[in-house]
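Q: What would this chain look like folded?
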Amino acid sequence: MIDSHAIISPKAKLGKNVTVGPFSIISDDVEIGDNTWIGPHVLIKGPTKIGTGNKIFQFASVGEDSQDKKYAGEKTFLEIGNDNVIREGCTLNRGNAQFGGITKIGNDNLFMAYAHVAHDCEISNNIILANNVALAGHVKVEDYAILSAFSMVHQFCVIGAHSFIAAGTGASKDVLPYVLVSGTAHDSSVFGLNSVGLKRRGFSEETLLNLKRAYKIIFRQNLPVAEAIVQLEGMVSECPEVDLFITALKNSSRGITR
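A: My prediction, written as C-alpha cells:
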C-alpha cells in the first residue's frame, strides 16, 4: 500500500493499512495512524502526528515550517486528530515556539482545496473550511463552524461554534457562536442567527426561540457587554445553550463582530 515512488523517512512511523501514493514525501518525526490514505505528491514534514482514518489529497503540504518571520527553526509541532479530509493544495503549518509551538486540529473536519491553516491555530471538530479559506496565526475555530470560500480570519480571532461565515468575508474580530457573518475583508457584520444550520444539527424549536432571544439581547438592545451578560445568565437555567454566548463574550480579547 506504499507506492514504490514514495519517499518515506526511516524515522517516520506508519500505522496499519496506511496508503501512500506516488511521489509523496514523508519526513522524519512524522507519525501516521491506522487506515489513513495519502494521495500522490503530498508533503508531510515533522514533527507531525496524524490520527486514524484521515484522507490527504494531492499537493497538500502538511506540517511545514511556520511562515512567521519570528520562526527560527525551533522544534515545533502539528497534531491532527481522526477522520479529517484534507483536499488538494491545502497548507497546514506547525506552531511557533514563542506561543506554545503547536498547531492543533481535531476530528471529522473538511478542509477543501487550497485552505490555509497558519501557525498555532486550534481547529476543533466537525468544521468545514471551504476552498481558499485563509486562517492567520493563533486563530481558534470551534465545533461545527462553517467558513465559506475565500473567507479570511485575522490573527488571534475566535470563530464560535455553529457559526457561519459567508464567502469572501473577512473576520477581524471574534465571531460569536450560532451567528451568520457576511461582508468584505474590511467591513463584516452579523446578519442573524444561523437557524438553518442549527435545525440541521437537531436544535429544538424551543432552543431556537431562546437563542433568538439571546441574540436580540446582544445585538439589538444596544446594551453594554456586561449588562448583556447579566441578562443572558438569567436564561441559562431554561436554555443551557445560551452559555456559549456568555463564555464567548467573557473571553473575547479582540471584541466581537457586530
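The CA atoms of residues 22 and 167 lie 34 Å apart.
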